[in-house]
Write a structure and sequence with these properties.
17 helices, 479 residues, mainly alpha, single chain
Length: 479
């Protein structure tokens, strides 16, 4: 017993001999250096007018550095876009045409005029010509000039020139016996379709036809006038029908399907750009709706994908309806090809077109985020607009991707409905649906990838946080 007491006494003496600092217990909130005064000061610093742009305080320097980094970095990106994306559009117009359009010359006359005009057009392949002429036998068109016109209307060729049957015999008869009803413009007929591509027709096809046939007409007039100088009936001809000598061979241009609805420019070209912009609005509205409701975090990946696809398809369905009705309000005629059902076709083409161009934005916003979307949208617009102005045949070969571009196919389908050009609705809608399918595949994949990445970050933070001392509950609620 005494031994135990002695041992206890010794231990007490040893503990007493140690010089330990006095234990002071801190309140939980004292573990953090953050105080109420700091919060008040921070609020004062953030008030309007509390800081100038050239403030030299550490906070002011940090704010100025952040602003300049974001602003100058964004400006540099815009300059970079000028030299990387905008040249796509400029390049599509720079050397128009890099290749000529193709045209046919058909001699239905078989006489002196037909042979002379065919040879003149076939030889006119100079650098100033925008059409390469090919002489095609009349036997290919048993229906005569009308069948040739149908071939142009059905877009087998861009333009064609017909030397009409009996032209040589009519001129010979008019030279032998003056004919007051003789009209040299009945000799040659040129065909074109303006509604197929108004820019090509107005700047390439029609100017080439005018320049070429004017030259041919003058040449033929000089030749016939020289031959008629020895005719005994020359005086009678000049008195009765001078047009037989002055303009024995002339031409008529038939615009088979004119671009006769100027308001159609809004739907077949500029309106496609507006569809992308409206689609971007829907993408941003849906993004804000998901964030406001918390669905971007609370819904499962499957339900979130279903919500995004169903919301977008419904929104574009309604927007395309009112967009189509707005076109009708400005008297756009959509009945020329499909009659009374033309409006339904017009609406559905616009609906599928809007899905094709806008679902791509909906798909990529998850990956690119709101900050990156404007850059992609500019590329998306420029790449599509570049191939919707002139025919792909006259553009550099790099723009042949236009055959699969949404704008190119949407424009062709709309021209069929509005003007009655060759029916491209089935082919074009098929390509547009392919774009819709691509977006319906990429959207779930991107959403799954981003959601998987987001769920991994909190888990990693928890694993790192397990080795850190926790902040007491009282301190957290106090702060």
């Amino acid at each position: 017993m005494s031994t135990a007491v002695h041992s206890s006494s010794t231990s007490t003496t040893s503990m007493a001999s140690l010089h330990l600092p006095p234990h002071t217990e801190k309140a939980p909130f004292e573990e953090s250096a953050y105080t109420v005064e700091d919060d008040v000061q921070k609020q004062v610093d953030m008030e309007p007018g509390s800081r100038s742009f050239f403030d030299k305080s550490p906070e002011g320097t940090q704010a100025r550095k952040a602003y300049l980094t974001v602003f100058l970095g964004g400006t540099f990106m815009v300059i970079l876009l000028i030299f990387t994306i905008l040249p796509i559009y400029w390049g599509s117009l720079w050397k128009i045409p890099t290749q000529n359009l193709h045209g046919w010359v058909v001699d239905f006359d078989g006489g002196m005029i037909g042979e002379s005009v065919s040879q003149a057009l076939g030889a006119n392949q100079g650098s100033q010509s925008r059409v390469t002429w090919t002489i095609v036998p009349a036997t290919n068109f048993p229906g005569g000039p009308q069948e040739l016109a149908d071939a142009v209307r059905n877009e087998q060729i861009w333009t064609a020139v017909a030397i009409n049957p009996g032209s040589s015999s009519r001129l010979t008869a008019a030279l032998a016996a003056p004919n007051t009803s003789y009209d040299g413009a009945e000799v040659i007929t040129a065909y074109g379709v303006e509604a197929r591509n108004e820019n090509a027709y107005r700047s390439l096809i029609r100017p080439t036809i005018l320049a070429t046939l004017e030259t041919v007409s003058r040449t033929m007039a000089q030749r016939i006038a020289q031959n008629a100088t020895s005719s005994t009936s020359l005086a009678s001809i000049m008195a009765t029908s001078p047009q037989t000598i002055v303009s024995p061979v002339y031409y008529t241009i038939q615009n088979l399907i004119p671009f006769d609805q100027p308001v159609a420019t809004a739907s077949t070209f500029v309106g496609m750009l507006y569809q992308v912009i409206m689609g971007f609005f829907v993408v941003m509205i849906a993004q804000n709706a998901r964030e406001a409701s918390g669905y971007h975090k609370t819904l499962s990946t499957k339900n979130l994908i279903i919500l995004r696809l169903s919301s977008s398809t419904f929104a574009y369905f309604m927007i395309s309806l009112f967009y189509s009705l707005m076109n009708l309000a400005f008297k756009l005629d959509v009945t020329r090809k499909f009659g009374r059902g033309g409006f339904m076709v017009f609406w559905m083409v616009n609906y599928i077109g809007m899905l094709a161009v806008a679902l791509a934005l909906e798909s990529l916003i998850t990956l690119l985020t709101v900050r990156g979307m404007p850059f992609f949208m500019l590329l998306w617009i420029i790449a599509n607009l570049s191939v919707a102005i002139f025919p792909l045949e006259v553009m550099p070969s790099i723009f042949r991707y236009g055959h699969a571009a949404p704008f190119y196919n949407l424009s062709r389908a709309l021209r069929t409905v509005v003007f009655g050009t060759k029916n491209h609705v089935g082919e074009s809608v098929g390509i547009l649906l392919a774009w819709v399918a691509i977006s319906c595949i990429t959207l779930p994949l991107i959403q799954w990838f981003v959601r998987r990445k987001e769920t991994r970050v909190p888990v990693a933070n928890e694993e790192v946080g397990q080795g850190r001392p926790g902040v007491p509950f009282d301190a957290e609620t106090t702060l």
